[in-house]
Amino acid sequence: MISSKHCLVTGAAGFIGSHLCDRLLSLGHRVTGLDSLIVGNPKNLENAKTHPQFTFLHQDVAGVTPQTLENIDWIFHLAGLADLVPSIQNPENYYHSNVHGTFALLNACRHANIKRFVYTASSTCYGIPDTYPTPETYPCSPEHPYALTKYLGEQLVMHWAKVYKLPALSLRLFNVYGPRSRTTGAYGAVFGVFLKQKLAGQPFTVVGDGKQTRDFTFVSDVVEAFVKAAQSDVTNEIINVCSGQPQSVLRLVELLGGEITHIPKRPGEPDCTWGDITKAKTLLGWEPQVSFPDGVAQMLDHIELWREAPLWTPDSIKEATKEWFEYLGKQP
């Protein structure tokens, strides 16, 4: 049994971060959760805040100092801005959060005795690959500012691991879903869009023909990957975290149950995301446990969480994604 550690989770009030806080506390670790609450939802931390081993810091990750990291053993860096469309509209905000914020945290680590640093990377760095399942060695080609800023953050982490001997790992996450995923804000992940549409009795807005596949990965599996990464002796590695069993959007519709309306296919989106999880299995001893049907069933059990979410229609999606088409569409 591993000894108790003092963990810092940045982005603690976010979707994955809050689940990770709960899991670390259940394992007997002390957890300091840090979140600016610009994106994170305080309700996600209702369980953690009742635990005597949990402390919350309301601040931006860019403001972390060596003093903040005093007595911290493990860092899980999940803070950052997500979503594709807003990154096209406001690339400066994404650079500040995902690149500068990561740099500031890493710089503070130079003056602290950190035992493990686990970075949350994104599989969007692969762009539109032509190799499936896609290995970590595949050349990265980000298609939009979000993907680029997450990739730049990952490169900083790997550089710190190399030059400053920070014991770091980067986990490239694929299409994570589960309870507490974002229910407000910009047009984004398919689950949130579809669940609200189901509640409203509206047809699912399927992009293209719906045959495109995504490597959907349930949040509890992702959290276990973070835990195993921190517990391992592996360092200076980039590791895919995914199910390795891509599912089509039409399969998701089948499991959710409902009518369909089709909207135009979007530029810069791959027809398939499918990660190679060989490294995760061999280096971390990790593999996913939640099947797609079981994961979707859990989402339906929590569908009321999306009651107040925005209802996206073909017209509102067209308006929200017009800059997507403008900037990522083929040039004449």
Automatic annotation (TrEMBL):
The keyword Ribosomal protein does not apply. GO terms for molecular function: UDP-glucose 4-epimerase activity. The keyword Isomerase applies. Residues 8-242 form the NAD-dependent epimerase/dehydratase domain. It is an enzyme of class 5 (isomerase). Its EC number is 5.1.3.2. Keywords: Isomerase. InterPro entries: Epimerase_deHydtase, NAD(P)-bd_dom_sf. Belongs to the NAD(P)-dependent epimerase/dehydratase family. PANTHER family: DTDP-D-GLUCOSE 4,6-DEHYDRATASE-RELATED. This is UDP-glucose 4-epimerase.
